[in-house]
Amino acid sequence: MAAKRSPRAQSTAVARSLLYVGPRAIIASSLAELESAGWGMSFAAHIDDAPGALSKIRPAAAVIGFDEKDLLTSGQKIESIIAHHPHLRWIALLPRKALEDTSIRKLIGSAFYDYHTQPINTARLLVILGHAAGMAEIAEDALYIAPHEPGASKEVEMVGASPVMQQIYQDIRKVASTDAPVLITGESGTGKELAAQAIHERSSRKDGPFVAVNCGALPANLIHSELFGHEKGSFTGAHERKIGRIESASGGTLFLDEIGDLPLDLQVNLLRFLQEQTIQRVGGREDIAVDVRVLAATHVDLEKAIQLGNFRQDLYYRLNVLQIRMPPLRDREGDIPLLAQYVFNRFADERGQRVKGFSEDALQIMANYDWPGNIRELINRVRRAMVMCDKFLITAADLGLERRRNSRIRVSLNQARDLAERDAIRSALADNLGSVTRAAEQLQISRVSLYRLMEKHGITPPTQQS
Q: Record's CDD domains (predicted)?
């Protein structure tokens, strides 16, 4: 059955479209308020009619109105339709009694963004719809960094809409406009090379080569030749001249990944190149001018490496003119579902035929997981789940996260306040050698208040020392 537009929706310009699937009687009492709030209604009488309706419209959100019988008999069809439209957020309207059924609760929890029990409270439903439409918009439109920006070529695949990533995008734009060296730091798997590619693509060198070198992956006996090249006959096996990676990047960008793993003797050669913009091939005596911008990346704490004698301080200052720190995935609030969906679409040809998306339970558990391997781990888990999943929707078990539901401990505001209070008291007592009087003065509270707080937190006054 074709989707039917309400007369009022046809005559009124509306900002958002809403698809309602199910008996119209369930939602009839709320139609006037929904349309007044800016929702243009489209209807499909039964779940079987939903695919046809969705082929004609692009709703901002969708609602399915059920009686208990529909939920029990149409569960598989519902999962399939929802999975075929992963960017759309679905809300279930169902009888309160239906939630007593375990299979219905499982369906609602795995496939729907939210639910609302009948009879409808329109004000509450409007709030749910607003949130659902907003999340759908973020998931669909906020995946790439400013692809419309003038002068930008095909954007590299950086995905994320969190505040911390928005700051990264701004930093990339700023450093791309100069030719100074950039040091990109961050944990393994956070996307440091993607950041380097984004800088290159936005720079004046975007039409030149982008040459990436993993300093930690090259054999120690070959790294000098790989970076600087060699002349014919310069060593056994050098049957012809070879252009090194630095020289091959001329006119473009050289990206030195894992720069912290570069041997000390080669750090001297690299420093000379950065100072003079010339190189000498192995076995050669000619100084070769090379016009290249250098970007470097590391997960190593280079300042600590300098203290340990593993990295040259002068090279560090040459490389660290500008710096970008890539955030770990656990700090990128809201980006995990976007990244998961991006990976799902990017490797679509690898997934099983039945697999259409992620269950809501899987998305929630991914959002609460710490991701010690960052984006690289997320890609690995999602790709494996896409192959191994034999259902319509990927679950937490398919991702190998079913036992990690409490990976990231959520702390309430009161708990956080108590922790900070306890730490401050212990620190003040330690600073003042156990003197409660001086500790109270440091904390700017009375001795009575300090004793009360110490009792609250189970802190025993240490023996005072003179």
A: AAA (cd00009)
